[in-house]
Specification:
By secondary structure, this protein is of the alpha+beta class. It has six helices and five strands, in the order αβαββαααββα. The longest helix is centred in the C-terminal third of the chain and has 25 residues.
Length: 143
């Protein structure tokens, strides 16, 4: 299985913000959409960074509540690790585990084509295990 399979199930919607938006606006977007990260894009749609809940908390921890007025560009991760639709689920799990992050943008033709979270991977793995378990029960029942 690969990332394309997960995107096929969850969709390709990506919530993005421009780098001049404030951390307060970003926090509001995360809360409203019930997500853990947004991609930061330029006016042309190019990927500039990613901003997670953790990034916002770090900024508040360092500067206090006034950090919420600062631009997203100050707190975002600019060196974004991405994957492709062809990336295997196992490879993506290794990337997330070794990098200690929970969201990976999916790139296609230089554009963000989706985003995969650790929750998406867990959901996929649970469904996979349940399907295997059902197949084994059915096999045993027929024997």
């Amino acid at each position: 299985m690969n990332v394309a399979h997960i995107l096929g199930n969850k969709g390709h919607e990506v919530v993005s913000l421009q780098p001049h938006r404030t951390l307060g606006e970003a926090a509001g977007t995360l809360a409203e959409k019930r997500i853990g990260a947004v991609v930061v894009t330029g006016a042309d749609g190019s990927l500039l960074g990613i901003l997670s809940e953790r990034d916002i908390i770090r900024a508040i921890g360092a500067s206090g509540a006034e950090a919420l007025a600062s631009p997203v560009s100050r707190a975002m991760t600019a060196k974004v690790v991405t994957c492709r639709r062809e990336t295997s689920i196992d490879e993506l799990m290794e990337i997330m585990t070794s990098g200690r992050f929970r969201h990976v943008p999916v790139m296609e033709d230089g554009r963000v084509a989706g985003i995969v979270s650790i929750g998406d991977i867990v959901k996929h793995r649970v469904a996979e295990i349940e399907a295997e378990s059902k197949a084994m029960r059915d096999y045993i029942a027929m024997a």
